[in-house]
């Protein structure tokens, strides 16, 4: 990477960081109120350069959301790659994701969910497909680790486990309870882990004897 490319990347990060901060103003209107003029003023990058980088206001908003999701995924991959027991990885991963989400405004989170589910702009299908595959890859690696350690019941398929985690976490990520659950993250993860753990041998044995 030459000097020009490094400067371009640095400027893009300035713009994305400024836009992210503006979209997270407490009690603000999120992406709805974002203007290129404000981003230019906060990032010290000209409006013309911002349009050149991102094409449009909506292009910038999409880039902010894409960057946020990519950062979460990168952090999750680092956690899963650590040589830690399954339960500890689950605890660390859940705390990390709840912490990241607790540091964005409620409006930002709502805008993010709406953008991810409803935006059909250029490249959105590929972006959703890429992020879904990346997320599933992280979780499937975690499930495999849990099975090797005997922490995940082998009778549960990957498909079922993905549905189980989705069901359990969607409520926790609801903006109305997102912040309230942070102090209970340890108990929340304990429930997740117990739900996928193999039953005690005595219980499983008594079930087979009937």
Automatic annotation (TrEMBL):
**Keyword set, alphabetical order:** DNA-binding
List each copy of the HTH tetR-type domain by range.
9-72
* SUPFAM superfamilies associated with the record: Homeodomain-like
| DNA-binding residues (ranges) | 35-54
Gene3D superfamilies of this UniProt entry?
Tetracycline Repressor, domain 2
Entry GO MF terms: DNA binding
Q: Which GO terms describe its biological process?
A: regulation of DNA-templated transcription
The protein, known as: TetR family regulatory protein
Q: Name the source organism.
A: Bifidobacterium subtile
């Amino acid at each position: 990477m030459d000097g020009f490319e490094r400067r371009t990347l640095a400027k893009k990060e300035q713009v994305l960081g400024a836009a992210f901060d503006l979209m997270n103003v407490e009690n603000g209107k999120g992406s709805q109120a974002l203007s290129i003029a404000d981003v230019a003023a906060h990032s010290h990058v000209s409006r013309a350069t911002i349009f050149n980088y991102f094409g449009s206001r909506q292009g910038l908003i999409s880039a902010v959301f894409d960057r946020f999701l990519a950062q979460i995924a990168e952090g999750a991959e680092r956690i899963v790659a650590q040589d830690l027991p399954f339960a500890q990885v689950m605890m660390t991963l859940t705390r990390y994701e709840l912490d990241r989400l607790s540091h964005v405004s409620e409006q930002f989170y709502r805008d993010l969910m709406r953008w991810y589910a409803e935006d059909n702009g250029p490249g959105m299908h590929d972006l959703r497909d890429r992020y879904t595959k990346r997320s599933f890859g992280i979780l499937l690696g975690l499930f495999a680790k849990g099975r090797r350690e005997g922490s995940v019941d082998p009778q549960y398929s990957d498909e079922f486990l993905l549905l189980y985690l989705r069901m359990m976490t969607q409520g926790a990520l609801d903006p109305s309870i997102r912040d309230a659950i942070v102090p209970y993250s340890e108990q929340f993860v304990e429930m997740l882990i117990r739900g996928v753990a193999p039953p005690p041998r005595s219980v499983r044995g008594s079930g087979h004897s009937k």
